[in-house]
């Protein structure tokens, strides 16, 4: 758990950091942050509870408890990471623990869009490459320099060509991932849509 | 000739703009909020000095944290009390309609909105909850969003999203006696896998779907997300219109005729082009039970827990994890596994028809002494209807506890939890590790009728042995 947390802000083009590997398919958001920690009205204290139950079960041997991972910020995962509920508390907890980017075989839809919305790029790599990184990372520290514009992750020994949706990449590079202001720019179009939707006309007594 | 799916039509209708990044800006016709995923969104709105743009397009209720035994205020749990108070204040300050406890309309958000007639065909519906896909049963395009997107909907009534592909899931024939919508959707998720739906909306269609009641259709669409699809829908038909008619917020008088005309124009065109089609024979589906830690790990009641070698290599890793966590052996029968707790409720199966079916099984029988069994109605309306029909009495006479409406032990944010490594037979939607409140608790998902059968026998049982007698 890092001492100081600052939310990402503005354009994101470069992420540098040590990797932390978490092995397993279909790791769901209940595991990332169990529901009892959702009883809060802000996200601030979630970082310490990330993977709480898995960590307790593994009694200090969970990757998020290992001393050598304590400064890591790039999470390496397998397939369908973040499946299950829409709770943004899951990526928020990861981010507040110190995660700044995630590389995996695949991600669940809502988890992925939640990550974008809070400024955590998620990249995909083929299974073999992910497993290669996880295997390497198992014995040695791995420091990656991620260049978002070129979708490239460089380390001392190897380079990886990362996959990321074009639209997500553009949003990070432009800062548009923090979507509210971009959406508000089209205020006139929103009003027009509101006034023209057929069902809003026959739901005049709606509520 | 147009070859658009309902999804295409509704999406295009709600598209506000192409955003510079390449995603679409989509107008949200109905926004539903609850106490868990909205407080931070209102907080962010305040930080950005923004107002709720269309307060009349957002509706709130409280469901996740409500106690189901004693609902008097303040709640015993301080954190739960703080959450409901925050929602009350946010709704009051922003002029948002809030269906609070005691209003007669409180309940699980995905039970409440349809029964109020808020959910209608052709709408886009968003809520900070993954089971928002439920509303797709009415031919709406409905999906779960995170808290930052809740903030965006509050501030702009729109979100940034990429258009989904559409997979049609065609269900031939019809479900056999003792087999329900829950069995069908568990079967579909098992066939396709828990991540096949990523990037897709699922269109459920075919004779077996046409036959289903609206409540059964909601059960199917509800669990789309368990198959990876954040959106699932069914083309609207007479069933849909009849369900909506005369509901509190349904269009009335001359508006009803206009609505009907428009709703009928919405369904997928006959020669719609789908990105994928999957067909199955619904008559082959058996009462289905999960044995593992993902909703895809399910089998028919007469089958055995699969051997590792019988599974595709990509499923083996999680299967091994599941054997260990569940304490079950590959090759073991699912039938007769002892049950500690029986839970009937949730946005998947907490509606009146679910309670009716389960009550029919349990009537004049007793819950096994080894089992703690409880029913949590999906809403205040469901509860009052059940009482009117005497269903609450049937449950209570059999030994079930009858509780107040809420999400309850589906995700155990209140005090309804498993303890230790108890096994539950649950009509809910997720069997993830620790889902029902104990880090080592075990969940077997099944239909409400199957939960009732398990309650009587104290072990996993085939409900057909009760209803076919």
In short:
The complex is a heterodimer of chains A (207) and B (469). By secondary structure, chain A is of the alpha/beta class.
Major beta sheet of chain A, specifics? 7 strands, mixed
Low-confidence regions of chain B = none
| Morphology call of chain B | globular
| CATH class annotation of chain A | Alpha Beta
CA-based gyration radius of chain B: 21 Å
Number of strands of chain A: 7
Specify the biggest β-sheet of chain B: 5 strands, parallel
Distance from N terminus to C terminus of chain A (CA atoms, Å) equals: 47 Å
Helix count from the secondary structure assignment of chain B = 17
Strand percentage of chain B lies at 15-25%
Instruction: State the helix count of chain A.
Output: 9
Q: What integer is the average pLDDT of chain B?
A: 97
CATH architecture annotation of chain A: Alpha-Beta Barrel
CATH H-level superfamily of the largest domain in chain B: Aconitase, domain 3
Helix content of chain A: 25-40%
SSE order of chain A in H/E notation?
A: EHHEHEHEHEEEHHHH
CATH topology group of chain A = Aconitase, domain 4
Count of discrete domains of chain A? 1
- What count of structural domains of chain B? 2
Helix share bin of chain B: 25-40%
Walk me through the topology.
The complex is a heterodimer of chains A (207) and B (469).
Chain A: E1 14-21, H1 29-32, H2 52-58, E2 74-77, H3 89-97, E3 101-104, H4 109-118, E4 122-124, H5 127-139, E5 143-147, E6 152-154, E7 159-161, H6 166-174, H7 180-184, H8 187-196, H9 198-201
Parallel strand pairs in A: 1-2, 2-3, 3-4
Antiparallel strand pairs in A: 1-5, 5-6, 6-7
Chain B: H1 6-14, E1 15-18, E2 24-27, E3 30-33, H2 39-47, E4 58-61, H3 78-94, E5 97-99, H4 109-115, E6 124-127, E7 141-144, H5 147-156, E8 158-161, E9 165-172, H6 181-192, E10 200-205, H7 207-210, H8 214-222, E11 231-233, H9 238-244, H10 254-264, E12 276-281, E13 288-290, E14 298-300, H11 313-326, E15 341-344, H12 346-349, H13 352-362, E16 372-375, H14 380-389, H15 391-398, E17 401-402, E18 423-426, E19 442-445, H16 448-457, H17 464-467
Parallel strand pairs in B: 3-4, 3-6, 4-5, 6-7, 9-10, 9-12, 10-11, 15-16, 15-18, 16-17, 18-19
Antiparallel strand pairs in B: 1-2, 2-8, 13-14
Helix pairs in contact in B: 2-5, 6-8, 13-15, 13-16
């Amino acid at each position: 758990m890092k001492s100081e947390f600052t939310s990402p802000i503005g354009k994101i083009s470069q992420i540098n950091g040590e990797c932390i590997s978490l092995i397993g398919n279909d790791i769901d958001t209940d595991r990332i942050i169990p529901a009892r920690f959702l009883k809060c009205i802000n996200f601030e204290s979630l970082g310490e509870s990330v993977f709480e139950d898995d960590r307790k079960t593994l009694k200090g041997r969970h990757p998020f408890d290992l001393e050598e991972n304590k400064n890591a910020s790039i999470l390496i995962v397998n397939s369908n990471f973040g499946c299950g509920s829409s709770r943004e508390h899951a990526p928020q907890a990861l981010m507040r623990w110190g995660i700044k980017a995630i590389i995996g075989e695949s991600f669940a839809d809502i988890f992925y869009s939640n990550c974008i919305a809070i400024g955590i790029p998620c990249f995909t790599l083929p299974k073999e490459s992910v497993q290669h990184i996880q295997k390497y990372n198992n014995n040695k520290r791995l420091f990656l320099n991620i260049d978002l514009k070129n979708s490239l992750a460089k380390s001392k020994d190897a380079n990886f060509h990362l996959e990321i949706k074009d639209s997500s990449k553009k949003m990070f590079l432009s800062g548009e991932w923090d979507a509210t202001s971009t959406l508000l720019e089209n205020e006139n179009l929103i009003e027009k849509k509101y006034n023209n939707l057929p069902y809003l006309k026959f739901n005049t007594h709606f509520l | 000739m147009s070859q658009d799916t309902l999804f295409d039509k509704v999406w295009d209708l709600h598209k506000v703009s192409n955003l510079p990044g390449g995603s679409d800006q989509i107008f949200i016709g109905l926004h539903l909020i609850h106490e868990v995923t909205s407080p931070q969104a209102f907080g962010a709105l305040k930080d950005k000095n923004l107002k709720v743009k269309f307060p009349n397009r957002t509706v709130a209720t409280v469901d996740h944290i409500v106690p189901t035994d004693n609902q008097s205020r303040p709640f015993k749990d301080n954190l739960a009390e703080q959450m409901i108070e925050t929602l009350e204040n946010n709704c009051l300050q922003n002029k948002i309609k809030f269906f609070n406890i005691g209003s007669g309309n409180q309940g699980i958000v995905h039970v409440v909105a349809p029964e109020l007639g808020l959910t209608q065909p052709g709408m886009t519906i968003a809520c900070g909850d993954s089971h928002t896909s439920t509303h797709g049963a009415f031919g709406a395009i409905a999906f779960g969003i995170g808290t930052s997107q809740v903030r965006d909907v509050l501030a702009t009534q729109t979100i940034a999203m990429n258009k989904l592909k559409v997979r049609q899931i065609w269900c031939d024939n019809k479900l056999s006696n003792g087999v329900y919508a829950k069995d069908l959707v568990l079967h579909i998720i098992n066939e396709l896998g828990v991540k096949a739906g990523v990037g897709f909306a699922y269109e459920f269609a075919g004779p077996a779907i046409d036959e289903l009641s609206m409540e059964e259709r909601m059960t199917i669409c509800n669990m789309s997300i368990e198959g990876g699809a954040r959106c699932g829908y069914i083309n609207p038909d007479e069933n849909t219109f009849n369900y909506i008619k005369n509901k509190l917020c349904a269009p009335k008088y001359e508006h009803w005729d206009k609505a009907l005309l428009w709703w009928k124009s919405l369904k997928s065109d006959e020669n719609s082009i789908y990105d994928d089609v999957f067909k199955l024979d619904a008559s082959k589906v058996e009462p289905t039970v999960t044995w593992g830690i993902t909703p895809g790990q399910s089998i028919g009641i007469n089958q055995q827990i699969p051997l590792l070698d019988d599974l595709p290599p990509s499923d083996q890793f999680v299967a091994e994890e599941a054997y260990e966590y569940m304490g079950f052996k590959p090759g073991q029968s699912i039938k007769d596994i002892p049950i500690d707790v029986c839970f009937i409720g949730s946005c998947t199966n907490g509606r009146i028809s679910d309670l009716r079916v389960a009550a029919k099984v349990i009537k004049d029988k007793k819950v096994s002494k080894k089992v703690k069994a409880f029913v949590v109605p999906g809403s205040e309306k469901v509860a009052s209807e059940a009482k009117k029909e005497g269903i609450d009495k049937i449950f209570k006479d059999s030994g079930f506890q009858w509780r107040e409406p809420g999400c309850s032990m589906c995700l155990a944010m209140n005090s309804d939890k498993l303890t230790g490594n108890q096994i539950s037979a649950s009509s809910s939607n997720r069997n993830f590790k620790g889902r029902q409140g104990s880090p080592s608790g075990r969940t077997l998902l099944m239909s409400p009728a199957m939960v009732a059968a398990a309650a009587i026998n104290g072990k996993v049982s085939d409900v057909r042995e009760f209803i076919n007698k």
